[in-house]
TrEMBL record:
Its EC number is 7.6.2.2. The lineage of its organism: Eukaryota, Metazoa, Chordata, Craniata, Vertebrata. Gene3D superfamilies: ABC transporter type 1, transmembrane domain. It comes from the Eukaryota. Belongs to the ABC transporter superfamily. ABCC family. Conjugate transporter (TC 3.A.1.208) subfamily. It is an enzyme of class 7 (translocase). This is ABC-type xenobiotic transporter. Residues 298-474 form the ABC transmembrane type-1 domain. InterPro entries: ABC1_TM_dom (IPR011527), ABC1_TM_sf (IPR036640), ABC_transporter_C-like (IPR050173). Pfam families: ABC_membrane. The chain crosses the membrane at residues 65-91, 97-119, 131-152, 164-190, 304-324, 331-351, 427-448. GO terms for cellular component: membrane.
Length: 474
């Protein structure tokens, strides 16, 4: 690893990526960390926005949006020109890492241009577009300023002039100007007037209005979560309008909340659930597996990723502690350990949060499909086993069984993830403390009977609660 980085940066293997060289930031650290990482974030953010399905609107494209598209394309051409100069005059680009990071920067700007091109119809009435599409551009300024100072220290503008070095310096200045023009076009974008669309279920808040109204009309806005970008879904940016409305005290009626996503519509879920039945007699487990199995098992990958990243934190922390105890290791490794520790914890929290959110959505779908099927069977009077129970008991049976089936979705992934986490934890304890890890294992074994007693008490209390509910509904 050290040799590869040293060969890429043209440095010594003992310190392959020096952070500070003769009073200024090292070129390799600037290119690999301060340039490549922000450009990767820039490209990923643009790709996430470009990949989201959005509804196009019929309006004229704003000139400021065209300006941002032109700036993005121009920036990619400037970077490509700089790379061509490096290929034609390799002695003027002494470090291979500059060409590599230049390619990353060029691809990121091309990706951003394509993202703006794909979003031009969806956001033509709002010249600024999504704010998250602009924020990564700010991360590109520090590395350009540092590189610009490096060119000045290398004598790009001093006598005698070096044509290639001066050309690269001018290209870099133009790239910096492009970013400022891009930011100026974003800040000058004024939001055009758009008719306010109701996000509520009910059309009006009059006391005499009907309780149930049809809201699938052309004037209705689509649910906020549908059509949002990956970045908006990961960080729940689609909730911002609702949160702002709540901060103003505007959430006073049930109809003020956002609509459910189309995938959670009861009619759509039930139709999909009925279509997966292989016969006229609905078999619950095979139908549930056919309807939601692929999606549910795919969520296990999110759970596995969150568990894996959660264990990377202690390992990187151990490496960071060893780095602080060793005085001869280069500073760059400590910075990498710190960045890795932050990134692993951040991504683990992000994946775990997304896993919980998607499982909760799946639980809603399972509960809706099961309850609808059971109610349909009860209304049709299929079977004679209901004659011996009261209406309250029947309703409780339906609700309780649906809850148990849907809550199984929450617990199934814990069946394989908890033993995995327990085994890895014991192994890490063994690496750190040796045979003393058996003490922790013994404590975990002693806790099993206590957990069993607590679980039994919870079941008893739940049974008493259901009996009281039956008596109240009778």
């Amino acid at each position: 690893m050290e040799d590869a980085v040293a060969q890429l940066c043209g440095s010594q293997p003992a310190d392959p990526m020096p952070v500070w060289i003769k009073g200024h930031i090292g070129i390799c650290f600037n290119q690999l960390v301060l340039s490549s990482i922000p450009h990767l974030i820039f490209a990923l953010t643009s790709a996430c926005h470009a990949g989201a399905h959005r509804r196009s609107s019929q309006c004229h494209l704003n000139p400021l949006w065209v300006c941002r598209m032109a700036v993005s394309f121009t920036a990619s051409l400037l970077i490509l020109t700089d790379m061509v100069l490096g290929c034609l005059f390799p002695w003027q680009v002494p470090y291979t890492v500059e060409m590599l990071c230049g390619g990353v920067a060029c691809l990121s700007w091309i990706t951003h241009f394509l993202a703006l091109l794909s979003l031009r119809k969806a956001w033509c009435s709002q010249p600024r577009g999504p704010v998250t599409l602009m924020l990564p551009v700010l991360l590109l300024i520090p590395t350009l300023v540092i590189t610009l100072m490096g060119f000045l220290q290398d004598g790009a503008t001093s006598q005698p002039l070096h044509p290639i070095l001066l050309s690269r310096f001018c290209l870099l200045c133009l790239r910096l100007c492009c970013i400022f023009v891009y930011l100026g076009a974003f800040l000058l974008g004024l939001r055009c007037f758009r008719p306010s669309l109701s996000l509520s279920v009910n059309a009006d808040d009059d006391d005499e209005s009907p309780l149930l109204t049809s809201f699938y009309t052309p004037e209705r806005q689509h649910p906020a979560e549908d059509g949002e970008s990956w970045l908006s879904r990961f960080f729940y940016l689609w909730l911002n309008p609702l949160l702002r409305q709540g901060a103003r005290g505007g959430l006073k009626h049930p109809g003020d909340v956002l609509l459910l996503p189309h995938c959670l519509g009861t009619a759509r879920i039930c139709q999909h659930f009925q279509s997966k039945s292989s016969s006229t007699i609905l078999r619950l487990l095979p139908t549930l597996h056919a309807s939601f199995g692929a999606r549910y098992y795919a969520l296990g990958l999110l759970k596995l990723g969150a568990v894996t990243l959660a264990f990377l934190g202690p390992l990187l922390l151990n490496l960071l502690v060893n780095f602080m105890e060793a005085a001869d290791e280069p500073l760059s490794w400590g910075i990498l350990y710190t960045l890795g520790l932050f990134s692993s914890c951040f991504l683990a929290a992000l994946l775990q949060n997304q896993f919980t959110h998607e499982v909760n959505k799946l639980i809603l779908a399972v509960r809706a499909s099961v309850l609808t099927s059971v109610y349909r069977k009860a209304i049709r009077g299929v079977g004679t086993g209901l004659a011996g129970f009261s209406k309250g008991e029947i309703v409780n049976f339906m609700s309780t069984d649906a809850d148990r089936i849907s809550n199984f979705c929450r617990s199934f992934h814990e069946v394989w993830s908890l033993p995995l986490q327990f085994s890895v934890t014991l192994y890490l304890l063994y690496l750190q403390v040796g045979i003393a890890f058996l003490g922790g294992l013994g404590l975990a074994v002693l806790l099993l009977p206590i957990n069993k007693v607590i679980a039994n008490r919870i079941v008893d209390y739940n049974s008493d609660l259901l009996n009281h509910k039956d008596a109240r509904v009778k």
